[in-house]
């Protein structure tokens, strides 16, 4: 893009490169039409005429550094089929700004297996985003059925599906959204830690998405993923906030137990007593309470999309996940975001070195 006679800007979605000086502008105008993948660097230097080899080399290096051009002589093997490359073309272009090797991140998604526990208003939306992003295999675990409240609390379900297992309905929609993803579902209830461990046994990453308050299942998920060394995170709506994390790399980042114990330790005596009474009530009611605080249909898709980006970062590493060592809260009415840092507990009963060394 010419700015004036002595300045030109080459721009991509990932950044821009500015070249100043009349001779530099002339060099770039001469060079760009020749970057068609059929000429080597030596060819360009030989044809440079009035331009010095160092000048040509410098401009080429800057164009490569800023992602304006790529080296056509660099070829890398790809496990993606032609159909996959076409389907994920926009996403592959996005990923190319974060990796010099084409398809690195898309291949990581293809090889991933994700288990989503909870196919409700939030979990179904996360799963849909992951399937459309090219996650190779996804398993939905939820014994709940679609009801009027679930239909009204999001945009995923409709009234014709009331009474059916939410995991079954979600699986059918995911297969329709992307036939290249292997989608499985289970309506077996999760009643203990062994059930969670069985669900995540073959997973690369586990995701816990619950629409109702619960207690034990968070500890079960944490323990199972630490034992199986499975990445995991969670997302849920609590009052008027969407809560993501902590996102856990077993024995490297703070785990859920680190978060739970630190959260409770920071409460004043009255709030602590109230929190303990709340947990006691939940446990007396089988771990869950069926009540509603009300929501807007847009909240679940919003939280689901943001959570899906967190999961994509965990699976590929194209950016550091936001909820590593933190809990991420989005106040849904105002869209204000609060990131609450979290430190590992040296004597965490779940993930400390002492606990890790105990024979299982």
CATH architecture tag of the largest domain: 3-Layer(aba) Sandwich
Runs in which pLDDT lies below 50 for 5 or more consecutive residues are: none
User: What is the number of helical segments per DSSP (H or I, 4+ residues)?
Assistant: 15
Instruction: Let me know the number of strands.
Output: 11
Rough shape? elongated
Please give the alpha-carbon distance between the first and last residues: 64 Å
CATH class division of the largest domain: Alpha Beta
CATH topology of the largest domain: Rossmann fold
| Strands ordered across the widest β-sheet | 6-5-4-7-8-9-10-11
Helical amount: 40-55%
Averaged pLDDT: 85
Largest sheet: 8 strands, mixed
Radius of gyration: 25 Å
Alpha-beta classification: alpha/beta
Strand content: 15-25%
Query: CATH superfamily of the largest domain, please?
Result: NAD(P)-binding Rossmann-like Domain
What sequence of helices (H) and strands (E) makes up the elements?
Answer: EEEHHHHHHEHEHHEHEHEEHHHEEH
Secondary-structure topology with pairs:
Elements: E1 2-4, E2 7-12, E3 15-20, H1 22-31, H2 41-46, H3 53-65, H4 82-87, H5 89-95, H6 104-110, E4 113-117, H7 121-133, E5 137-141, H8 148-152, H9 166-177, E6 182-186, H10 193-200, E7 205-210, H11 216-228, E8 231-238, E9 241-244, H12 256-265, H13 269-284, H14 299-316, E10 326-331, E11 336-341, H15 353-357
Helix pairs in contact: 7-9, 7-14, 10-11
Overview of this protein structure:
- By secondary structure, this protein is an alpha/beta fold.
- The protein has two domains: 2-65, no CATH class; 112-357, NAD(P)-binding Rossmann-like Domain (Rossmann fold).
- It is built from 15 helices and eleven strands.
- It has helices at 22-31, 41-46, 53-65, 82-87, 89-95, 104-110, 121-133, 148-152, 166-177, 193-200, 216-228, 256-265, 269-284, 299-316, 353-357; strands at residues 2-4, 7-12, 15-20, 113-117, 137-141, 182-186, 205-210, 231-238, 241-244, 326-331, 336-341.
- The mean pLDDT is 85.
